[in-house]
């Protein structure tokens, strides 16, 4: 199967590692060996939603077992990360490389009492096991946080009418970033490792949600720092509209819009100028915060609608992938 070919051909993996590190070690300060490994594993080898994955029913049914494809893949990724960590440090001497991974974390909550177990199982597989397995091979912990990504309802994702969502079906929840940083800091306090927010962003072609989203997540990060969490940096996802593996060019994540019908022209959105202002001044002003919240609330009152790249069945369950375009009202 593809998993075995890809990860067990260690000679190929080692060749790629040496090729990249030998080529750029002298100009790279911060390294991310793997981006969201458990997301890659789940959506490729367990669900088959991403390129390269075409699991049969038996693989899907057994994927969460200790001997299933999920744990197999995560084990191989941990091995390759450890090799990369050692080789990067070897080749970066006498300079000091900083090596870590970008770990995806979503704040999950059960929709109802009977969904508590589903949330518990999901957290047990995705929150800490991978970082625990490489805890002696990290110089920092990268956190990719987008929001309250999953409200579990049985085995599905529930659309809750009172919540605000991105175009990709991720619930907007800035306080979750604060809580995640404190949770991970407590878990790995003994390692004395700093954090980097390696991804934080929202798909929003209207740019109405993105501006308050940006400010509130920066404030959540700052609140965690006040509580003693060491955060080295914050990276917003993303600079310009990008390709999503399951959704193509549909969801708009960029601070800068890309006009694909006009020679890929780049058009800065208002959030681009807002982020630039915060970076240059090092401040979030009350005036800016009130302004962007006021614009969002006005649009919601006016019944403005926005794209939504998820299908929703009659039970309110969301489905990802090539589902076509619908729309949601701002709430």
From TrEMBL:
SUPFAM superfamilies: (Trans)glycosidases (SSF51445). The keyword Hydrolase applies. GO terms for biological process: carbohydrate metabolic process. The keyword Hydrolase applies. PROSITE patterns: GLYCOSYL_HYDROL_F1_1 (PS00572). InterPro entries: GH, Glyco_hydro_1, Glyco_hydro_1_AS. Keywords: Glycosidase, Hydrolase. One of its GO terms (molecular function) is beta-glucosidase activity. The active site is at residue 199. Belongs to the glycosyl hydrolase 1 family. This is Beta-glucosidase-like SFR2, chloroplastic.
């Amino acid at each position: 199967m593809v998993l075995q070919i890809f990860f067990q051909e260690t000679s190929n993996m080692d060749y790629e590692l040496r090729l990249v590190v030998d080529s750029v070690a002298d100009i790279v300060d911060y390294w991310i060996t793997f981006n969201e490994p458990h997301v890659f594993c789940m959506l490729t080898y367990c669900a088959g939603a991403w390129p390269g994955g075409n699991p049969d029913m038996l693989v899907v049914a057994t994927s969460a077992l200790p001997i299933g494809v999920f744990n197999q893949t995560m084990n191989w990724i941990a091995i390759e990360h450890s090799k990369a960590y050692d080789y990067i440090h070897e080749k970066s001497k006498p300079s000091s490389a900083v090596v870590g991974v970008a770990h995806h974390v979503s704040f999950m909550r059960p929709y109802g009492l009977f969904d508590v177990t589903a949330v518990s199982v999901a957290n047990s597989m995705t929150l800490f096991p991978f970082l625990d397995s490489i805890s002696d091979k990290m110089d920092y912990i990268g956190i990719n946080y987008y929001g309250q990504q999953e409200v579990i309802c049985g085995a599905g994702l529930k659309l809750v009418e009172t919540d605000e969502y991105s175009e990709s079906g991720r619930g907007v929840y800035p306080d979750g970033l604060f809580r995640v940083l404190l949770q991970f800091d407590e878990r790995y306090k003994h390692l004395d490792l700093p954090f980097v927010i390696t991804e934080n962003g929202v798909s929003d072609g209207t740019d109405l949600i993105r501006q308050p989203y940006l400010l509130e997540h920066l404030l959540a990060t700052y609140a965690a720092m006040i509580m003693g969490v060491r955060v080295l940096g914050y990276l917003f996802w993303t600079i310009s509209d990008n390709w999503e593996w399951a959704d193509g060019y549909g969801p708009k994540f960029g601070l800068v819009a890309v006009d694909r019908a006009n020679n890929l022209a780049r058009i800065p959105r208002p959030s681009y100028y807002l982020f630039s202002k915060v970076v240059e001044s090092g401040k979030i002003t009350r005036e800016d915060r009130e302004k962007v919240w006021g614009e969002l609330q006005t649009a919601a009152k006016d019944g403005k609608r926005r794209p939504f790249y998820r299908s929703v069945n009659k039970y309110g369950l969301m489905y990802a992938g090539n589902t076509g375009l619908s729309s949601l009202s701002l709430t």
